[in-house]
Structures are given as structure tokens and as C-alpha cells.
Amino acid sequence: MTLAALVGDLHAEARRTNERRLLVLAGNREAGIDAAYSTIESTDIDSEEVSLVTTREGFRYPRLPPSKADELLGTTREIVVLDCHEDFSANTLGQVTGAVDGGGLLVVLTPPLDEIPDQLDALVDQVAVPPFDRSAVGNRFRQRLVETLTTHPGIAIATVETDGTPEASLSVTVERDGLSHPAIEQSRSAPNPSTRTDTPFPTVAFEACLTADQARAVAHLAALSEPGHAVVLEADRGRGKSSAAGLAAGSLAAAGRDVLVTAPAFDNTAALFTRAERLLDQLGVLSTAANTAQPRLSTTTDGRIRFRTPPEATALASEVDIVIADEAAAIPVDLLEDLLAAPSVAFCTTVHGYEGTGRGFDVRFRDRLAESEHTVDAIELHEPIRYARGDPVESWLFRTLLLDAQPPVDQLAAGATPESVSYRQLTADELADDEQLLRSVFGLLVVAHYRTEPTDLVRLLDAPNLQIRALEHDGHVVSVAVLAREGGLDADLRAAMYEGQRVRGNMLPDVLTSQLRDEAAAEPVGYRVMRIATHHAVRSGGLGSQLLDRCYEEFGETVDWLGVGYGATPQLLDFWRSNGYRTVHLSITANDRSGEHSALMLRPCSAAGQALTDRHVDWFRDRIGTMLSDMLSDLDAAVVREALAATGSSGGDIAETFDDREWQLIAGVGYGPGTYEAAPHLFHRLAMAQLFESAADLSDRQERLLVRKVVQGEPWESVASDLDFASTSQCMREMGAIARAFSELGGDVVDAERKRYE
């Protein structure tokens, strides 16, 4: 069979079934590129319907480098050519596959298939981290790629080669035709706008839907027209979720509603705004169009649609009519909960995505949503927009990248306790050889973390610096930890890091060295807990702490420290503190997506680890007071309290740090006519002592008062409002109660001062 005949048959079957087909051109790069040109030219597809994803330049077809493959998300092409020979990644594979339309072809250029496990060097570079060299990187993912390409339906394989002459005669051998010979032709189910008479949305909104599934979603979103409703819209990638949300937003704005849209980034909402703008224009009510500089639409009916980041959106939620959160699984649960202050709210999220996945939304937020005052309506989109359901290329991609990985079902995890579980090392070979085990482990990680990407699967299977440990209950994984070896770097690399060079895979030593100016920080060896995940059916039952303790017992005698870095919340800070980890750093900037500041924590295992931890805890305690009055002045008081408490006690006696004159000033505020304003420096020292040592018996609100007013310098009025005092004067009087609590530590000097006012 010739290449032209193969392409003709594949393309015809893809069009007849509204599915996609994948063509692998295996051989050297030049032969693959020549064959890709022949593939395109043997079809009747216009050049604007073709995209090449390659590092090579000079093509007459539109081209993107692999680093910008995500620009194809939300677009469609009839042919996408992916050159895997250079800068290939699992993420890129997912992104480009999603851009191929029903009836189209994905053309993949690879080395000879039997050579792939020893090639695709970009995959090696992505997971090779110092002090390991490239030879330590595994090839299990590459073996997996070859296995799925050669066994899955809908995939054709042709070996291509050239004779090496300047004329470069192309030779093609078809190894597998990829034809699945389906008996049934498939097409999208067309929506019927006339059946949608039970919603306030205009008929044109339903006419714009591409499937009946999408029209059904828009009808459900119409509930947002009335206050007190929450709609959850879930779908795999490519089901038209964001477009449905855009049609709903446009319909609401056309009716004069104020619609606030939020997502991890504005780019996530591009399809939503495009659909909304088009609908408003069709309705003749568009007043102001959207652009990336000012993402908002306004209407002649006094409606509007505007975008804000999640932290910004929480502050506005109660002031608008409707909030629509797109890619909600990528927004922290605390922020999602704050969005419930809106009269009506929609949460739209991707379940199985090419650049991250959203199963954790179900686990972490659904219970909180059910407890809210909103009437909750949930809908899931199943029918693909761009191709028929059951598309073999989609199922191949899900299988290869584990996009649909799930943890064990709840019944298998139920009853797991720290006493019932067994501790187990999971090697990469075991994971690669046991598909069910791999899917269980990866499924737990997916549910626990909103940004688990295909490249994380590559790391799990092949990264030389990772260790995987798990707890099993009746043979099923119920908790898993992924630990990354860091540090142990030679003097030259430590010096380069100190001078600003970034060193891959050494996050904690990098921050301690480059930002905190400790050139010796990368010499001790440690393990950073990259991920820890416990099955949602047995969460908060002590399994996470059990797993960390077992890891400490195992690694404590062979490394200097265990560490972690994460977006700080009061709950997480308390969890890590209770497991022996101490705060050594808080980032000065908040994550744009979550609004959280990163916390770095260490748990020493050796004398060298203890010295590293102690000096960085001391340096953190020295600088944090100034930071909190400046660049961290808006940091949540609960985070401040937990982060500082997690530094550990210094064992000092607070009474000995104040002289008699200073105790008299403190007692004067507590018992006499003294005021906080006369001695703010003393109260700052008292506040820091309280946050570090819990020196006095203070309530939670009193400690938060110390943080907001004394440490962060917030005005009395806003402190009183934030802490729910009846008045500003009552808030100010509370400082006297705080002074009295501290005066209990002052001894005879305070006793004498108190008696003067009794």
C-alpha cells in the first residue's frame, strides 16, 4: 500500500465516522517531514486547516514550536503534524491531539519505533536533575508510548526512510493500516431550539449550540437567572463546556444582569467571552466588546460580563448578580467557598484535561457546596463537540497519559486506619508492570492536586530522583507520597546557584541558596515531599501523618532533612507543624491563581539537617516581623499565626526580655491610663513572642488583633470590622485586656503597678 492510499483510506474512514485517526511516520526526521508533506498533499484539506508543531522552521503551513502547543487548545484543525524528534513532551502530545477535529488526522513523526525507548531525548532532559546524570533516567514512559501506539485501534504506522542522496528518494512501508472498519456512521446530535421554551434564555442561544448535550447544559444554566441557585457543569475536554457557559453569560447580560467571570487565568475564559460576545452581537445589545487588556463586555440593557482573578472575584462576589467560575477545579476550595457569597453561581470544570485534571473538585468541594444555602443543580457533558463519542484517538490518549486514572473505589478504602494499613515502597518498575497499581496511584495524585499534568506521569515512571511510598489497606493503595531527592550538590554547582543559576529539581536548596543567601544550603541531602495524597473516603483519619512518620523512620538515617513547599493555608500549616516540620520561609508574593503565599518547611534528620533548619528558622524569625509590616502586610492573620507557631519554641523566658520600665508601660495599658500608642514597640515585641511561643493565654481573636493591628499596622477601623467588634472603641479597649494577660508574666513590678490603680 502506498502512503497516498493509506492516507486516503484513513481520511475517508475518519470523515465517514466523524472520528479521528492517528498516523505514525516512524523513521529519521528528514524522511518523516517529507512523508508529512506527502500526507498533507494527498488530501483535499486547505492549508489554513493544517498546523505543524515542530522546532523546525521554513514550512509553508502554519507552524508552532512545541513550547507553544497550548495555543492550539480551543482551536480545531483537520490535520495536525507533531514532530516528536525534538522538544517532545507528554503535555504537548495531549495539547495537539485535542486540536484535531472529527474527520481529521493526527500525524506523529517519531524515530523508528524500536528505537524510541532510547531516543526522544527531550523526555530525558525534562526529568534529569542534579546530581543525577541523564543515564539515570528511565525509559518506561517511552516503552508505554510504543506499546499503546502499536496495539490501539485507529492508529496507522508507516516506516519511512530516505536513501541519503541529495534527491532524497522517500521509501514508505505500511506496517499497520489503522482502519477499524466501524459499521455505523456517527454524527453529532443536533439540538432542537424549539424544545427550549421553559427557560428565560433567548432561542438564539440554543441555536448556537453544537450538540443537544450542550443545549441541555445551557438550559440548566438558565437557573442562574434567579438568586439562590448553584449550577455545577463538568465535562471532559472538548465537550463545549466553556462555550455553554459563554452562551449563558451572554443571555444573562442581555437580560441586564451583572455577571462576574473568574478562572485561574483570563486565557481559560477566551472561549466563554468569544461565545458571549457573539451572542450579544446577534441579539443587538452589545455595547462594549471584550479585549485582553480589558476583559469585559457591556450591553445596552445595563448588563455586563467582566473577568477577575479568583482572589479578586471573592471580594466582589456579594456585589454582583452571578458568578461563573471556569476551570473551577484549578481554584482553591477556600476561594470557591467564598464565591458562594454571590446570589447565584456556576462552577464549570474539566474532568479529564490535557493540561491538568479536575477530579479533585468533586472530592474537595461538593460537600461544602451541598451544605450551602444554594439550590444545587449538577450536569455533566458527555458528547464531544469536535468528534464522535468513542473516538479511538481520544481513548488512546486517555490510555497513554492516564487522563482518566481513578483511585480505588470508596468501598475498597473504607475502614482503613493507621493500625490496619501496611507501608510499602513502590518502585517505578512495579508501577510500569502493574497497570492497575499505576492507575490507582496516579488517580490518588490526580484527585489530591488540581494541576496533575501528563508530564507528571513521565516523572513518576522515569525520574531518577523520586521515591514513592504508600500505605495499603487490604492490598489497595489508600495513601501515597512522592518524595524528590534534593541537595547533595558539589561546591561548584552550589556557587553557581548562589550566583543566580537555576538548578532543576532542587526547589528547596535553590530558594535557601539564591533567595536567602545561604551558599551551604545545597550541601546537605534531603527529600522534599512533592505530593502526598490520601483517599478521600478515609481523609482526616491520620493516614497522611502515618505515612509521613514511616517515611521519616525509613529515610531519617540516610538523609539530612525532609522538607515541603506548598501554598500556605491555616489547615495545611497546622498539619505540617503537627508532623514535625518547621517554617523557614514565606514567599513575599501571592500566587495569582490561588492568592496563597508559598511556605517552605523543614524537618531535620541529622546534625547537618538540624544546623540547616535551626539557622533558617532563626533567620526567618529575625526578618518576618519587618516583612509582615511591609510586603506581607495583607497576609491572612490565621496564616501568620500558624506559620510563626510552626517555627518551634526557642525555649526563652519572655519575662527576662523586658526591663522594669517596660513592664510598667505594659501594666499601665492593662490597668491604668496608658495607651497602646504610647508603647507600640513593646506591643510589637509582645506580639511576636506570642506568635512564636504562645507566651500568654490569649483568645484566637486577641491573637488576630495583635497580627492585624500591632504587627501588620492596619488601621483600627478595618481591624474592628474584620474581627467583628461592635465598635472601634471596643476593639481598642481589647488591647487593654491583652496587656493584662501579658502582665501575668511581669512579676513584682507589674503587681506594684496594678495596686496603684485598684
TrEMBL record:
Its EC number is 2.3.1.193. One of its GO terms (molecular function) is ATP binding. ATP binds at residues 214, 386. It comes from the Archaea. It is found in: Cytoplasm. It is an enzyme of class 2 (transferase). Residues 7-158 form the TmcA/NAT10 N-terminal domain. One of its GO terms (biological process) is rRNA acetylation involved in maturation of SSU-rRNA. One of its GO terms (cellular component) is cytoplasm. Residues 232-404 form the TcmA/NAT10 helicase domain. It catalyses: a cytidine in tRNA + acetyl-CoA + ATP + H2O = an N(4)-acetylcytidine in tRNA + ADP + phosphate + CoA + H(+); cytidine(34) in elongator tRNA(Met) + acetyl-CoA + ATP + H2O = N(4)-acetylcytidine(34) in elongator tRNA(Met) + ADP + phosphate + CoA + H(+); a cytidine in mRNA + acetyl-CoA + ATP + H2O = an N(4)-acetylcytidine in mRNA + ADP + phosphate + CoA + H(+); a cytidine in RNA + acetyl-CoA + ATP + H2O = an N(4)-acetylcytidine in RNA + ADP + phosphate + CoA + H(+). Belongs to the TmcA family. NCBIfam families: RNAactase_tcmA_Halo (NF041296). This is tRNA(Met) cytidine acetyltransferase TmcA. It comes from Halohasta litchfieldiae. The gene is tmcA.
